[in-house]
Design goal:
Helices cover 35% and strands 22% of the residues. It is built from 14 helices and 16 strands. It has helices at 3-15, 26-42, 47-59, 67-83, 141-146, 173-189, 229-240, 292-311, 339-349, 382-391, 410-414, 429-432, 445-463, 469-472, and strands at 86-99, 103-109, 113-115, 117-119, 131-138, 156-159, 194-198, 224-227, 246-251, 254-267, 272-282, 318-325, 356-361, 369-373, 397-398, 419-424. The chain has an eight-stranded mixed beta sheet with strand order 1-10-12-11-13-16-14-15, sandwiched between helices. Helix 3 (47-59) packs antiparallel against helix 8 (292-311), helix 8 (292-311) packs across helix 13 (445-463) and helix 10 packs antiparallel against helix 13 (445-463). It is elongated, with a radius of gyration of 24 Å. The protein starts with a helix and ends in an 8-residue tail after the last helix. The model is unreliable at 1-6, 9-26 and 475-480 (pLDDT under 50).
């Protein structure tokens, strides 16, 4: 028996319990039954797999502001119209794009060896002849920051923060992503001519993980590269053996002025269409793979969940809005070049922030959801207990309160919009994240289907309820 059939059987069995375990008024019972039906029907749907297959195959990688991202946004808008979404529109905004160009890395001494490395996003090019310099190794960003100014003049700063810890919730990523973001500017402040780091990933493959670095005073000051884990080990061992290690780094990367796009589509509410629930993911991806898990899968999941609600024949009271955000992956010299910020600015111009009831984001691959996070105070309400019961047959547990959402809905959260999270299993996510291995074959269709069922059921409950998530917050979190 397949996992899908086992899951479907478990859901069917739980449905026999009906709503009796949680007493409710007649209207509430109808909402719960509708959510359960949408959940069960979503397990047999193939919209998510269709979307992720088409977008990764037709367009491949979709770097922010690239022709591929633009074409994918236009195609996605037509795709959403074809599914029956209303008010489909594309929001355009300016940003600084980045093109990787050609790159390479090698050990020159003590003995020549080729290295596998990838330039960090928005890293500037090296001089035409490359950079050849001695490596100075640090085991943390703090250690790099502690050395005197000028002490790395003419050298390459190398931060080896160690192998990323594999965690279900992905919490091992933060320390290494901080190295990636702040490392080049920290190295430049000490006089270094370039920066390298161990890739922020959990794998041990000879495959580097790219990712954005940070602008400081309008620029990324020096070239930065990520080494694959085995190559990082190789350089570190040579340093530990007491060898003087010299590297050659080469990059023809460039930045350019361009545009990115948000794709916005609605399922208008039946009786309270002005009350909006945002389901977010991002359209852009890194250039090494095809952006299947990061984040075509998120778009697939949220689109398919909304489509399952549409196909149920029950039109919820509130509007369900799918947003495919542009330019999530890259840093910018100003705070205007990201899709989440662009969406918020457009909403603020029309006075619509308060009309946003809640927002959720799918941007952690396509593996199964294991826990639910609701706005502070919501889990202890009748709504929270009902949501837990409806999601329980999918193997989903309750979780701590959700406060910040993700990168795309973060601007809404900071503007006061409550957020929810459906926590995905990230145990293998950072094996693939920002690498050439982020491709369609890494998606498990059965686990992605479980995602769709969870999103569809929860969103149906929210959309056809009277719950006010702002009112459920404890006093200490009000206004955050």
């Amino acid at each position: 028996m397949t996992r899908f059939r086992t899951l479907s059987a478990a859901v069917a069995a739980s449905a026999l319990l009906g709503v009796a375990a949680f007493p409710a008024q007649a209207q509430d019972a109808a909402v719960v039954r509708a959510a359960e039906q949408v959940r069960d029907q979503a397990l047999a749907q193939n919209v998510a797999l269709d979307y992720v297959t088409q977008i990764t195959t037709r367009f491949g990688p979709r770097p922010a502001g690239s022709e591929a991202e633009t074409a994918a946004a236009r195609w996605a808008a037509d795709y959403l119209r074809g599914l029956g979404f209303r008010n489909v529109r594309i929001e355009e905004f300016p940003l600084v794009g980045w093109d990787r160009g050609e790159e390479g890395a090698a050990i020159l001494g003590p003995r020549p060896q080729r290295l596998v490395a990838a330039a960090l996003g928005h890293s500037p090019a090296t001089p035409e002849g490359g950079i050849e310099a001695e490596v100075v190794r640090f085991d943390s960003l703090d250690a790099l920051n502690a050395v005197p100014a000028g002490s790395l003049t003419g050298k390459i700063a190398y931060v080896d923060g160690g192998q990323m810890v594999r965690m279900q919730d992905g919490s091992g990523y933060g320390p290494l992503s901080r190295i990636r973001g702040a490392g080049p500017s920290a190295a430049a402040a000490k006089g270094a001519v370039a920066f390298i780091m161990r890739s922020a990933g959990t794998d041990e493959h000879r495959m580097p993980h790219t990712g954005t670095t940070r602008y400081v005073d309008g620029q990324v000051p020096i070239p930065g590269f990520a080494l694959s884990a085995p190559d990082a080990d190789q350089v570190s061992r040579l340093v530990e053996m007491g060898e003087t290690v010299r590297l050659r780094l080469h990059s023809t990367a460039r930045t350019y002025q361009t545009l990115s796009h948000n794709v916005v589509a609605d399922l208008p509410g039946r009786t309270r269409p002005e009350e909006i629930i945002v389901l977010g993911s991002h359209m852009d991806s890194w250039d090494l793979g095809t952006g299947a898990i990061d984040d075509a899968a998120g778009g697939a999941i949220t689109i398919a969940a909304a489509k399952a609600i549409l196909d149920s024949g029950r039109r919820p009271a509130r509007t369900i809005r799918v947003v495919l955000y542009g330019s999530e992956e890259v840093a910018q010299p100003t705070n205007t070049g990201n899709g989440g910020g662009a969406y918020l600015r457009n909403v603020q111009q029309t006075g619509g922030v308060d009309r946003h009831i809640i927002a959720g984001e799918s941007d952690f691959g396509a593996d199964r959801i294991y826990a639910l996070g609701l706005p502070p105070g919501s889990a202890e309400t009748d709504f929270g207990r009902t949501a837990a019961r409806v999601l329980g047959p999918l193997g989903i547990l309750s979780a701590e309160a959700e406060l910040s959402g993700g990168a795309d809905i973060g601007p809404l959260a900071r503007a006061g919009v409550p957020v929810f999270g459906l926590r995905q299993d990230g145990t293998r996510y950072f094996d693939l994240h920002h690498t050439a291995d982020d491709t369609l074959d890494k998606i498990d269709p059965e686990q992605m289907t479980q995602n769709v069922a969870a999103w569809a059921a929860l969103v149906m409950l929210i959309a056809d309820s009277d719950v006010d998530f702002r009112a459920t917050r404890p006093a200490a979190t009000q206004g955050r």
